[in-house]
Design a protein that fits this description.
Layout (H helix, E strand, L loop, with lengths): L10 H21 L4 H32 L3 H8 L1 H26 L5 H6 L17 H10 L2
Length: 145
């Protein structure tokens, strides 16, 4: 008799973990000790650190499935959409943290900041390439002579 298989976490687990992480970051930023500017800077860094692994996993899931082909990579491919949506939520929270940080400092972002970082939040139709994420397109534009 074979033992029962362990339950594989589904979208609800992904979203619950995401909400818990975001709630902890927001709580620390809003109610933590220290100056508001430092708390907003920590929130900005925290959301960036949360977003990058989500983006990386969603973007490379099918490549890992091709290279490794394990149960985890199959799970990643099946849940890629949910991981990508989780990235979008955290990335939007990151935008809010950046706007709040700039407002707290009384700064207006420069044109390079808005052109480079700001286009990551623009709709894909604006860059004319539907199949390449905007941050990747931005890097390509910056590195091409």
């Amino acid at each position: 008799m074979t033992p029962p298989r362990a339950a594989v976490p589904g979208p609800a687990v992904i979203y619950a973990a995401l909400l818990l992480g975001c709630a902890l970051l927001l709580t620390a930023a809003l109610f933590g000790a220290g100056p508001l500017e430092e708390r907003l800077a920590a929130l900005t860094a925290g959301t960036a650190r949360m977003a990058f692994p989500l983006f990386w996993l969603a973007f490379t899931a099918s490549a890992w499935q091709t290279l490794v082909g394990s149960g985890f990579t199959r799970w990643l491919v099946r849940r890629r959409r949910h991981i990508g949506l989780s990235f979008a939520v955290v990335h939007f929270l990151h935008l809010g943290a950046l706007v709040a940080l700039h407002a707290e400092r009384g700064e207006v972002p420069g044109p390079v900041t808005l052109a480079g970082g700001g286009t990551a939040y623009a709709p894909p139709e604006l860059n004319g390439v539907d199949h390449v994420p905007l941050p990747v397109t931005n890097l390509l534009l910056l590195t091409c002579g």
